[in-house]
Design goal:
With about 375 residues, the chain is of the alpha+beta class. It is built from 13 helices and seven strands.
Length: about 375
């Protein structure tokens, strides 16, 4: 988060805290959720799992003691401070848990690939324990299955990608690894079922980057991240390939090239980490590292599943948001039909068919509960390590 954004929410808390303070002394000390507090402070509410909530809550706790009630989304103000506490600048003096867990896996990959490893993010999710291989190889059982997978996969990708990049950037900051963005492409004339892919050369990379920047300008997006907040990757991919036609290549995906800095030797790092351990012992170390990452991801995905199951959407002109809302509404309609059929089948087993109503009512809560259940099942299928 940039300093400008930090100043924005800090400034709004400073300006509007008097409203929260006034409510406190009137006896209004409990709020139904974090969004209600943000609205009172005139702060744009961001996704509950994002870093912005933590930062806002941390700043707010300079002025008061604000906590979430146990086993609830409700927030409560327990005390108001006469003088705001001094702001403590956040510094990270030690590596993140993800960086610690990624490093032995990355070193093992580099050791067995001559110190250069190319991979798409999907494969890296699998290699590092962020997801399992079924994340990108899932087999559908029903139409509802497919709808749920498509909806959940995008949500899962955002969490997985954030964790991946956070860990890699932390390792890079410690000068333990280097990584570059690269582009997987294939020849436009290769019309085989599985075209032979390769990584773009520096001149080809330059052309692709120029095209992506051109697309960002067309869509009035200041960064690729902003573009992906509003649109899906397929939108970018289609547009890039239209503009790439005259170059004779097709853009398939963005990948990462990972390698060690010049001052580090991959064999030395491998020996330092693993010493004389057997291949079985090394496999266990890597498996344990991946398990720690996966456990944390599973916990985060469970929070996201609960959040999405109870989330109310406002009308949004953002294309991706509209598509997401539409997909969720379609999923809920499918769930409604399934639950109605299940209940009807149970009623048909009853000897008294006269009690069967013309229309079976299903509560919103029951739909949300089932939606959370199936999202949790998908988490188990495509994220949890087997």
């Amino acid at each position: 988060m940039t300093n400008n954004n930090e100043l924005t929410y800090m400034h709004k808390i400073e300006l509007n805290f008097s409203k929260l303070k006034e409510n406190f002394y009137k006896g209004i000390r409990e709020y139904k959720n974090f969004r209600e507090i943000c609205d009172l402070l005139q702060i744009e509410y961001k996704k509950a799992s994002s870093d912005s909530k933590i930062a806002i809550l941390k700043e707010l706790n300079r002025y008061c003691l604000c906590n979430r009630k146990p086993n609830s989304y409700k927030m409560q103000i327990e005390a108001i401070f006469e003088t705001p506490k001094e702001r403590i600048k956040q510094t990270r003096n030690k590596p993140s848990i993800y960086a610690d867990c990624f490093y032995p896996v990355v070193i093992d990959l580099l050791y067995h690939n001559n110190n250069i490893f190319y991979s798409t993010k999907y494969y890296l999710f699998d290699y590092l324990g962020i997801t399992n291989q079924w994340y990108y190889k899932f087999k559908f059982i029903s139409q509802l299955d497919k709808m749920l997978y498509d909806e959940f996969m995008h949500n899962c990708f955002e969490v997985a990608n954030q964790v991946l990049m956070r860990g890699l950037k932390n390792l890079n900051k410690q000068k333990k690894i280097e990584f570059d963005i690269c582009y997987e492409i294939y020849d436009i004339n290769d019309d085989s079922l599985y075209p032979k892919t390769y990584y773009a050369s520096p001149p080809q990379e330059k052309i692709i980057i120029e095209i992506i920047n051109q697309i960002l300008d067309e869509f009035n997006c200041s960064s690729l991240h902003k573009f992906m907040e509003s649109f899906y990757f397929d939108t970018l991919k289609r547009r890039v390939n239209i503009l790439l036609e005259e170059e004779g290549i097709v853009y398939k995906s963005t990948a990462l090239k990972i390698y060690l800095p010049d001052e580090l030797n991959v064999e030395d790092e491998y020996n330092r980490l693993f010493g004389n351990k057997s291949s079985f012992e090394i496999s266990n170390i890597i498996r344990e590292s991946k398990a720690i990452v996966n456990e944390r991801i599973m916990a985060q995905m469970d929070r996201n599943n609960k959040y999405e199951a109870n989330r109310d959407y406002n009308l949004n002109t953002n294309y991706r948001s509209i598509e997401y809302i539409k997909t969720k509404e379609e999923i809920q309609e499918q769930i409604l039909k399934k639950l109605q059929n299940d209940e009807l089948n149970e009623l048909l087993k009853s000897p008294n068919e006269a009690k069967i109503p013309p229309y079976i009512m299903i509560s919103t809560k029951k739909i949300e509960t089932y939606y959370y259940k199936v999202r949790t099942e998908f988490t188990q299928k495509i994220v949890k390590l087997k």
